[in-house]
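Ops channel
N.P.: pipeline sanity check, posting one input/output pair.
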């Protein structure tokens, strides 16, 4: 059962206006990710994927990450739209690694070529993630990787009872 979308205010967008299949957008945003006292990535080369009921998932270029911080792991999943995802740990010397905290599409579906060599990250495990200096809130539920910011209204997929949306 589809929930009642929140009406967006000035400068806001509703995740219920996002399309299915998802749309990809290159955006002019600065993403900074911190873990273990270190900046692991700071980039303005940002792509977001918009899908109905989900906060955007942000993809950052692999080359923008600090050398050695991304460690490929033996885990894959399949997205019906984007293809087979491979996972990475984030490793910062002196702190425990963040396990399977990011994913990328080595050979994304032909509809999403801009995702090649880009990594998306779950926000919750990191010390901080910001978009244009605004702290990011993780998408509810822990299964999805969307980043919630003030310009978004939901409700968001991932809250209890939302599995069938």
């Amino acid at each position: 059962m589809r929930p009642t979308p929140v009406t967006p205010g000035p400068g806001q967008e509703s995740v219920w206006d996002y399309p299915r299949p998802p749309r990809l957008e290159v955006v002019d945003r600065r993403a900074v990710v911190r873990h273990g006292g270190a900046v692991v990535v700071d980039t303005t080369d940002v792509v977001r994927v918009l899908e109905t009921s989900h906060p955007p998932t942000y993809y950052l270029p692999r080359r923008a990450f600090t050398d050695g911080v991304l460690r490929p792991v033996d885990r894959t999943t399949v997205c019906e739209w984007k293809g087979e995802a491979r996972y990475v740990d984030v490793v910062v010397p002196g702190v425990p690694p963040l396990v399977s905290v990011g994913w990328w599409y080595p050979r994304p579906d032909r509809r999403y070529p801009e995702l090649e060599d880009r990594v998306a990250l779950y926000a919750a495990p990191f010390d901080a993630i910001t978009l244009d200096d605004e702290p990011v809130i993780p998408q509810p539920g822990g299964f999805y990787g969307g980043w919630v910011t003030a310009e978004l209204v939901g409700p968001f997929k991932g809250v209890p009872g939302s599995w069938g949306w």
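N.P.: looks fine end to end. The chain has one domain: 13-151.
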